[in-house]
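From the pipeline queue, job 12 of 40. The input is one protein chain; the requested action is below.

Action: predict structure.
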Amino acid sequence: MLVSISVLESTIKSIFRLSGADDSIVDDVSVHLRNYINRKGFLRIQKVNRFIFMPQCLRSTACPGKLTPEGIACIDCDQCGIGKPKKYSEDLGYKFYIVPGSSFIKRIIKKYQPKAIVGVGCQMEIKEGLDLCHRYGLPALGFPLSKAGCLATEIDWEQFNDAVND
């Protein structure tokens, strides 16, 4: 099924563009399908072997967290919504990373070798992340932002907490 999605995706997007429709719907469907396909394998992995990658765009523009080799070091300053879900996820056993880009994700995957991943981001980033995880043989779930962009993005934290609690 994943092969079919990959092969047909560009053709379907072209048809959408030609008809004047929003081709981002194709990415949305692709992410939902991949999540559905990956979910069973993801749930078999213990939470202590799961990593969460959160995009830096969810941080406050006044975030005092500093960039480290492991990503942004959250100090739970309450200027954005990341601190509490980070603590909640870590209390469940997850490793939680706030990353400025995919090069951090690749480096952390190679260094720590997680068994499963939750990735948060815009549809395009999630799709690319799911492709990366597939190449590494990792079951992964993509969790889309409710408001995308490069600054002041948003996520439904309650839905996120429910998803990581599985």
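Job complete. The longest strand covers residues 50-55.
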